[in-house]
Amino acid sequence: MLGLMQSQQLLISSLIEFADRHHHEGEVVSRRVEGDIHRCTYRDIAQRSRQVAHALDQMDLGFGDRVATLAWNGYRHLELYFGVSGSGRVLHTLNPRLHPDQIVWIANHAEDQVLCFDMSFLPIVKAVHSRCTTIKHFIALCDADKLPADSGIPGLQSYEAWIASHGSTYYWPEFDENSASSMCYTSGTTGNPKAALYSHRSTILHAWAGALPDALNMSARDSVLPVVPMFHVNAWGLPYAAAMTGAKMVFPGPAMDGKSIFELIESEKVTFAAGVPTVWQMMLGHMQQADLRFSTLKRTVIGGSACPPAMITAFNDVYGVEVLHAWGMTEMSPLGTVCTLKNKHVPMGSQEKMTVRLKQGRALYGVDMKIVDDVGAELPWDGKAYGDLLVKGPWVISEYYKGEGDSPLVDGWFPTGDVATIDADGYMQITDRSKDVIKSGGEWISSIDVENIAMAHPAVAMAACIGMKHPKWDERPIVVVVKKPGADVSREGLLAFYEGRTAKWQIPDDVIFVDAIPLGGTGKMQKTKLREALQDYKLPGL
Question: Cα dist. 51→44, 56, 82, 195, 296 in Å?
Fold first, then answer.
C-alpha cells in the first residue's frame, strides 16, 4: 500500500521561488569586483535568475548542457546558481586557482557550452579561451560599459546586457529530481581531475540536512558570510541552505584578506561565517594586532583541513564565537560531519570540551559511516581503533562523471581515502590520509603532479613529493630528489623549473637532494620511511 501524499519533485528552482515568496525582503549583500558594496533582495535574485534562464533558453542550450563559471562569491554568481540549474542545465564551477592547462582540460572534459566569468579573471580567460573547444559563448559578469573593447575574446557579452532584454516572468520546467544540477571537479585524486555530478535531489537534501539545528543551525535570523568560495563544492551548500531558510547572505567577492573580512562581518552584522583555517588565521591576526572584538558573530564552521586547537580556543574563549569543526569531500557535496556538542558535554570543563571539538564531528542525518581494517572488516566505535573511513548516503557520489576511473564504491560504500577513529558517541576524528595528496590552505595538491614536473627536468633521476606541516597553510609540499649520475641542478634551479608548469601555490617550498629514495618490494616509493627520515626537518623560514 502506498501513502496518499502529494508527489513533488525536489528541484533547485523551488528554493529561490520559496525565498521569493516567503523571504522576498531578505538581503543579499556583495562586495563586487568593482570594489563597491552591492545590495539586493531575494526577490531581485529570483527575478534575475529567471532572466538568466530566459537568456540560456535563447542560446538554444539543451537539457543538461554545462554552463561554467569562473567567479568570486557574489550576487551574479548566486543568480547563475539558480538560473542555470533551475532551467535544466548543469552549473559547472571552475576553480580559478588552478593552472590554465588544468582549467582547459577540465572545461573540455566537461564539454562546457558557456563560460561566465568575473572581470578579474579576464587574463585567465584570454589565456585559455582558444583551447576550450566546446565553449561557444563567453559572458563577462559586469555592466555593459565595463566590457573591454579589445578583449580578444570573440563574441564576448556583458552579463547585464545579456539578461536585460529578457523578462522576469518564467515558468521553471518540471523534470526528474535525479537530473544533474551542478558539477565540481576534484584534484584530490591521482591522475586527471574527476568530476562529482550532483543532482537536484541530492543538493536539496544536503541543504536541508546542513541547515538542521545540530548541523549548521541556519535560520531567517542569521546573517551568513560564506568565505569558502562558491567554486569550492558550491560554497559547502550554503547558498542553497540560505534560500531554504531565508537567511541574509553576505558575499566577500575578491577581498579575502583578514581586514576586509572582519570589516564585512561587522558592517553587515554577520552571525555565522564559514571558511578554511587559513582565512580565519589571517582575520584573527588582524584582530589581535588592532585589539578588535566581534559585536554580532556567534558561530563559524571551519573545514577544508583540521582546525588548530589554538584557533578554536581563540574563537571560543577570547571572542565568544562557537567553532563548528566540519568534515566532508567534493564527493560528498561536501558535508559529512559537523562537530556540535551533545547535552552530556554541556557541563564539561573547557579541556574536556576541547577534546570533543578537535574531532571532525558527528554524521549528519543521511550520512552513514564506518571504519574498516585492511581486509574490510568493520572496526569498533571505541575512539581507539582506527581504519579506513567509508561513507554512504543520498548526497554521496556513486560514480565519477563519464565513468572516469574504476567504480569508487566498495560494497555500496565510498572509500574516503582518510584514516579515522569513531568514538562511542559517533564522533569521528581523522588521524591520517591514506593517499599522498597534500592539503595546503584548503586546496589539494597532487604529489604525483609535483613529482612528474621534477622528473621532467633533465638532471633528475627520481623524485618524491611529501607534505610537511606548516602553521599557516596546514601543509606545504617539498620534493626529495635523486640526481642523475654526472648531472647537476641546484635547489633554486629546480624550483624555477616549476614556474609556468603549475599554479604558483602548488610549487614546492623546498628541494632536498638525497642519494636514494627508499623503495618497497614492488618498486613503489616508501614515503612513510621518507617522512620518518625527515621528522626533524623544518620548512624554510619557519
Answer: 11, 9, 11, 28, 35
Q: Where are the beta strands (DSSP E) in 329-367?
A: 335-339, 362-363
Tell me the domain boundaries of the chain: 13-28+36-218, 334-433, 438-533
Residue 16: which of 194, 266, 240 has the closest Cα?
Answer: 240
DSSP-H helix ranges across 30-129? 42-58, 75-86, 100-110, 122-128
- Are 39 and 25 in contact, with CB atoms under 8 Å apart? no
CATH code for the domain defined by 334-433: 2.30.38.10
**Is 392 a residue of the active site?**
no
Contact call for residues 475 and 467 (beta carbons, < 8 A): yes
State how far the Cα of 291 lies from the Cα of 303, in Å rounded to an integer: 26
* Bridge partners, 421 (sequence order): 386, 429
Among candidate residues 17, 79, 93, 186, the one labeled active-site is 186
Enter the CATH code of domain 13-28+36-218.
3.40.50.12780
Identify the active-site residue in 194, 359, 392, 439: 439
Predicted confidence (pLDDT) per residue in 132-172, tens digit: 999 999 999 999 999 988 888 989 999 999 999 999 999 99
Contact 114, 59 (CB under 8 A): yes
Question: Is 331 a catalytic site residue?
Answer: yes
Which CATH code fits 438-533? 3.30.300.30
- Banded pLDDT at 456 (limits 50, 70, 90): confident
Catalytic residue among 331, 443, 451, 475: 331
Can you read off the three cell numbers belonging to residue 469? 606541516
Q: Which of 444, 472, 483, 527 is catalytic?
A: 444
Q: What is the C-alpha to C-alpha distance for residues 453 and 188, in angstroms, rounded to an integer?
A: 18
Phi then psi for 8, rounded to 5 degrees?
A: -140, 130
**302-343 pLDDT, tens digit each:** 988 778 788 898 999 999 999 999 999 999 999 999 999 999
How would you class 452 by CB atoms within 10 Å of its CB: exposed for 0-12, middle for 13-18, buried for 19 or more? middle
pLDDT band at 479; cut points 50, 70, 90:
very high
Q: Decide: 302 and 280 in contact? Cβ < 8 Å.
A: yes
* Cis, bond preceding 334 (omega within 30 deg of 0): yes
